[in-house]
Hints:
Blueprint: H1 3-35, E1 41-45, E2 52-54, E3 59-63, H2 71-83, H3 92-101, H4 105-123
Parallel strand pairs: 1-3
Antiparallel strand pairs: 2-3
The structure holds zinc ion.
Zinc ion binds at residues 80, 84, 90.
Amino acid sequence: MDEEALEIRHALYAWVRVWMRAEVSSLVDRFSPLEGLEPRGVRIKAMKTRWGSLGPKNDMNLNWLLAFTPPEVLAYVVIHEICHIRFRNHSKAYWDLVTRHDPMWPERRAWLKQHGTALLHRFG
Ligand SMILES: [Zn+2]
């Protein structure tokens, strides 16, 4: 990649992250109070293979490419990570909690499975 292309790429990355930070913060404001599950912070970054993760101190990491998914898919990943503050596993109790806040989650997961890999390969 030449220097100009690299600069454009960095500018796009910065701009998308600004947009996502605002979007995610309104999602967190909406869902966190419902269960009293507050992430300590949110980090939006390039991740090679994952859409989100939750650190041991409840720092939420989100893949910047979620900005290019449908809004309900982004919301699902935020809910998914928020619910991990209570359950650090994918137990039935965990999925029951996710279902309470996004009953359509299997469709979100199916979307990521069907289209997510292409997105990761294109820009990741
Ligand atoms: Zn998970």
